[in-house]
Amino acid sequence: MASNVNPTVRRRRLGQELRRLREAKGLTAEEVAERLLVSQSKISRLENGRRSISQRDVRDLCGVYEVDDHRIVDSLMQMAKDSRQQGWWHAFGDIPYSVYIGLETEAASLRTYESLLVPGLLQTPGYAEAVIPGTVPELAPDDLEKRIQVRMRRQERVNDPDRPLRLWVVLDESALRRVVGSHVIMREQLEQLVEVSKLPHVTVQVLPYDTGAHAGMSGTFSILEFDDAADSSVVYIEGVTSDLYLEKTNDVHKYTIMYEHLRAQALSAEASREFIAEAAKRHADAMS
């Protein structure tokens, strides 16, 4: 069973349950930390799923929360064990956004807004090979190859015949015009984008320049949703040195409203396909 376990999601679910137990006892994270002689930040990281949880951590916390039902304790201990398994992405070494990959792998749907580049889930190998070193210029050649492989592996979710990712992309026009790599690469990338957008579970909309000011001008973001009711939605904001994961209901609600405004301001799916096809033609014309 371990091979089917998503450690990121297990950690997240376990953290949510531990938070629920703490709050049921009326304890603060600081009070729990004092009892266990650990830092408050450790308790917070355990609860938000950003840190691996050992079975000993679970045992100690269950003791503080006075959990007497051995079935609950055993279940939490098993979740802790599962959370320490490795996902497929660990085979590629230290990937800085591995937490996100774990969430994306388990997500049922993903809504994303990109202002400058084609999203990784829809990139061609040529585009990825050009854009990754452009955004991370100090990357070693071996690490570049690993990131390209990871990016291509992530795309399996989009084409999964049994459980395809429901993907909705709002893309700024600048991502279509910026020449990443070469006009050849851009033409191939945009032509593929047109084809992928025809899939029944994929929607791509373009925000033209003449849209003017819009809700996405504060930055790119993604909203991940899950089939399991135990997994709350997550807003993901990528950073240079660290990433931000927002899970509070109010935060997710605000970004959801922002996304609805972006969808309303963007071209329709059909008009967007025509717009992207025209952009691909311009890159083709620039090659001659």
UniProtKB/TrEMBL annotation:
Q: Report which superkingdom the organism of origin falls in.
A: Bacteria
Q: PROSITE patterns per the record?
A: HTH_CROC1
In its UniProt entry, what is this protein called? Answer: Transcriptional regulator
One Pfam family it belongs to:
HTH_31
> Which SUPFAM superfamilies does the record match to this protein?
lambda repressor-like DNA-binding domains
Domain HTH cro/C1-type, by residue range, is 18-72
Q: What SMART domains would the database entry show?
A: HTH_XRE
Q: Which Gene3D superfamilies match?
A: lambda repressor-like DNA-binding domains (1.10.260.40)
The family database entries (InterPro entries) matched by this protein are listed as: Cro/C1-type_HTH (IPR001387), DUF5753 (IPR043917), Lambda_DNA-bd_dom_sf (IPR010982)
